């Protein structure tokens, strides 16, 4: 019987099949790494902590402005895009794409992956 971590890693490996995704992770809301599919040259724990902080800050800002709930954040840089979305009350799904990756398919696949994650946690 696979562990929760192994099942989360399978969700991330399946997500990578969407194309253009260089790294992904499931992170607890407080920034702890739960599972990842991240290249060796990326410090996974720092990636997890900082992306959770970004999403948490965005959620706080939107609530303070009385504008509902954050669905996702997208950070676009010269060399990558980072997308973060809530995956239930306990986790966040983060993906990093190549800079020229179209986000349509990535966002659809992330929505499917976050539903799977919610079912596991």
Describe this structure in words.
The protein has a single domain, classed as 2-Layer Sandwich (Beta-Lactamase), CATH 3.30.450.30. α1 (4-16) runs antiparallel to α3. The chain is 43% helix and 26% strand. The chain has three helices and five strands, in the order αββαβββα. With 121 residues, the chain is an alpha+beta fold. The protein is globular, with a radius of gyration of 14 Å.
Chart the SSEs and their pairings.
Layout: H1 4-16, E1 21-28, E2 33-37, H2 44-64, E3 72-76, E4 81-86, E5 91-97, H3 103-120
Antiparallel strand pairs: 1-2, 1-5, 3-4, 4-5
Helix pairs in contact: 1-3
N-C termini distance: 16 Å
Domain count = 1
| SSE class | alpha+beta
Instruction: Let me know the number of strands.
Output: 5
Question: In summary, what is this structure?
Answer:
This protein has 121 residues and is of the alpha+beta class.
Which terms summarize this structure?
single chain; 121 residues; alpha+beta; Beta-Lactamase; 26% strand; globular
């Amino acid at each position: 019987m696979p562990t929760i971590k192994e099942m989360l890693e399978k969700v991330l490996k399946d997500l990578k099949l969407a194309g253009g995704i260089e790294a992904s992770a499931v992170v607890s809301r407080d920034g702890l790494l739960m599972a990842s599919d991240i290249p060796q040259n990326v410090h996974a724990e720092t990636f997890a902590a900082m992306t959770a902080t970004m999403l948490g800050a965005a959620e706080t800002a939107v609530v303070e402005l009385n504008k509902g709930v954050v669905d996702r954040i997208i950070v676009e840089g010269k060399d990558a895009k980072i997308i973060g979305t809530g995956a239930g009350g306990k986790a966040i799904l983060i993906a990093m794409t190549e800079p020229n990756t179209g986000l349509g398919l990535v966002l659809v696949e992330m929505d499917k992956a976050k539903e799977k994650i919610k079912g596991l946690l």
